[in-house]
């Protein structure tokens, strides 16, 4: 009697051991899968920030084709296509993301951004209109402001630029765009204030400095503003100021400013020199 009982116990023990081994293997597989997901997530973050844009596109194209149900990989593909200056291709991917059950309002903003980059203002506006007004993000209002600009709805544009500036701790680009909007409307004094505001948040922005010079030149303010600049930037800004003066008919002032550009530059300022020769200076 004892032998059959012992055999039964051994069989039960073997079965339990096999079950434990199977459970352990399953746990190990799940653990490895979790580690792979974390590693993949880190790699995706790297590809979207510091990786080469075209390499990122190739990575996300391969990964999303191998994992068609992974919406995060499609998002990565759309974003990497934007970084690679391929907005038309990004639009198709964003549309697929937005149409999926996992599509979010952030994804719709991504689609609108891609449409704006192709100058599809009507499409951008239509996409933004599908987003509820309660969804308030910096990117959403930045795009809303630019769409309002394209429609010459200045009151709405000013409101959206103001909201967007308040939703980021780096509003320099918003103030620069807002200033350029004012400049195109002919509000040169208003533009000057906004470009100065942009420089208080990013004193290295040459675009804001150059736009500031243009807004001042439009008011016939031909003196150099007191802002942080390198010697090379000073020469380039004198050049911009000189050309603006000439275009407004202030030829003698423009000639003097172009000469200052040549004198200021640490290297030979060929563009300013050519302009001076054209003016007979």
Order of helices and strands: HHHHHHHHHHHHHH
- Which structural class do you get from the secondary structure elements? mainly alpha
Radius of gyration: 30 Å
**Regions with little confidence, pLDDT below 50 for 5+ residues:** 5-11, 14-18, 31-38
The CATH class of the domain at 136-229 is Mainly Alpha
Shape: elongated
Figure out the total of helices: 14
Distance between the termini: 121 Å
Q: What does the main sheet amount to?
A: none
Strand content: under 5%
Mean pLDDT: 87
Helix content: over 70%
Structure summary:
Residues 1-18 form the signal peptide. This is Tetratricopeptide repeat protein. The protein is built from 14 helices and no strands.
Describe the structure.
The termini are far apart. The protein has helices spanning 2-49, 53-66, 71-83, 87-99, 105-117, 121-128, 138-150, 154-166, 172-185, 188-201, 206-217, 231-247, 251-264, 270-278. The radius of gyration is 30 Å and the shape is elongated. Among the domains are: 136-229, Serine Threonine Protein Phosphatase 5, Tetratricopeptide repeat (Alpha Horseshoe), CATH 1.25.40; 231-281. Helix content is 77%, strand content 0%. It is mainly α and 281 residues long. The chain contains 14 helices and no strands.
Features:
mainly alpha; 281 residues; 14 helices; Serine Threonine Protein Phosphatase 5, Tetratricopeptide repeat
SSE layout and pairing:
Layout: H1 2-49, H2 53-66, H3 71-83, H4 87-99, H5 105-117, H6 121-128, H7 138-150, H8 154-166, H9 172-185, H10 188-201, H11 206-217, H12 231-247, H13 251-264, H14 270-278
Helix pairs in contact: 2-3, 3-4, 4-5, 5-6, 5-7, 6-7, 7-8, 7-9, 8-9, 9-10, 9-11, 10-11, 11-12, 12-13, 13-14
């Amino acid at each position: 009697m004892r032998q059959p009982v012992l055999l039964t116990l051994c069989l039960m023990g073997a079965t339990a051991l096999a079950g434990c081994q199977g459970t352990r293997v399953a746990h190990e597989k799940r653990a490895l899968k979790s580690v792979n997901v974390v590693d993949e997530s880190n790699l995706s973050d790297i590809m979207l920030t510091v990786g080469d844009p075209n390499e990122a596109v190739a990575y996300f194209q391969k990964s999303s084709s191998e994992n068609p149900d992974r919406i995060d990989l499609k998002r990565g593909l759309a974003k990497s296509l934007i970084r690679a200056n391929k907005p038309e291709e990004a639009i198709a991917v964003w549309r697929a993301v937005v149409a999926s059950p996992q599509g979010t309002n952030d994804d719709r903003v991504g689609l609108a951004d891609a449409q704006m980059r192709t100058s599809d203002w009507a499409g951008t506006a239509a996409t933004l209109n599908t987003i509820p007004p309660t969804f308030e993000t910096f990117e959403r209002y930045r795009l809303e402001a630019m769409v309002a600009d394209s429609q010459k709805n200045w009151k709405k544009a000013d409101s959206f630029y103001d909201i967007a500036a308040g939703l980021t701790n780096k509003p320099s680009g918003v103030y620069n765009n807002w200033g350029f909007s004012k400049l195109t409307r002919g509000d040169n004094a208003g533009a000057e204030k906004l470009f100065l505001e942009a420089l208080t948040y990013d004193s290295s922005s040459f675009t804001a400095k150059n736009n500031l010079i243009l807004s001042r030149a439009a008011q016939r303010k031909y003196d150099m503003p007191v802002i942080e600049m390198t010697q090379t930037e000073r020469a380039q800004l004198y050049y911009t100021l000189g050309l603006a003066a000439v275009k407004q008919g202030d030829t003698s002032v423009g000639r003097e400013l172009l000469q200052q550009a040549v004198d200021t530059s640490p290297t030979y300022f060929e563009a300013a020199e050519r302009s001076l020769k054209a003016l007979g200076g």
